[in-house]
């Protein structure tokens, strides 16, 4: 069976050290362990890296840097194809404000790179029914594969779950 390709946005990576949300932090760390075990192929974008590097808390920035050094990932550059998808997101009345440009780029990167899942904890802009359905439609209409947008909890397999369910 082929590995899922995961695109991680900055919110997902940030939750590796989000003490104020212990359940979500634990879920992200469980997913991270699965990533380290090679269960998934992972991609980040230039946008993800810029957002992480903009974190003002030096201790958190160092912690996230250590986490990133634990895994292998591809880095997606923002190219013409990514920009086209980001423009489609906006022209289809999703994330239309200029302040949502990075969110549109995250979607564009995940779609163009052929990721199965965009992992995010940005429930306001990305992990919601409207954006998920819109991203699926745009991906399909643009001739790319299916894309899902979800938090880590929907990917991790709990220890009491079996593969035969």
In short:
The chain has 165 residues and is an alpha/beta fold.
Explain how this protein is built:
This protein is an alpha/beta fold. The protein has a single domain, classed as Rossmann fold. It is built from 7 helices and 5 strands. The protein has a 5-stranded parallel β-sheet with strand order 3-2-1-4-5, sandwiched between helices. Helix 7 (129-141) links the parallel strand 4 and strand 5. Helix 5 (80-91) packs across helix 6. The longest helix has 15 residues, at 22-36. The model has no long low-confidence stretch (mean pLDDT 93).
Would you spell out the secondary-structure blueprint of this structure?
Layout: E1 4-8, H1 10-14, H2 22-36, E2 40-45, H3 46-53, H4 58-69, E3 74-76, H5 80-91, H6 101-112, E4 117-119, H7 129-141, E5 148-150
Helix pairs in contact: 5-6
Strand percent estimate: 5-15%
Contiguous uncertain segments of 5+ residues = none
Domain unit count: 1
Main-sheet strand order equals: 3-2-1-4-5
The CATH superfamily name is: 5'-nuclease
């Amino acid at each position: 069976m082929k590995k899922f390709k995961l695109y991680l946005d900055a919110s997902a990576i940030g939750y590796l050290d989000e003490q104020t949300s212990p359940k979500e932090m634990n879920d992200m760390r469980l997913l991270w362990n699965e990533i380290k075990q090679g269960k998934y192929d992972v991609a980040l974008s230039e946008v993800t890296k810029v957002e992480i590097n903009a974190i003002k808390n030096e201790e958190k920035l160092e912690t996230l840097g250590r986490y990133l050094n634990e895994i292998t990932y591809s880095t997606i550059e923002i190219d013409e194809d990514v920009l086209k998808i980001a423009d489609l997101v906006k022209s289809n009345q999703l994330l239309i404000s200029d302040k949502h440009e990075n969110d549109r780029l995250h979607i564009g990167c995940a779609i163009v790179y052929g990721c199965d899942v965009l992992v995010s904890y940005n429930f306001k802009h990305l992990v919601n029914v409207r954006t998920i359905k819109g991203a699926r439609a745009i991906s399909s209409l643009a001739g790319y594969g299916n894309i899902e947008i979800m938090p880590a909890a929907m990917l991790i397999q709990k220890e009491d779950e079996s593969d035969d369910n």
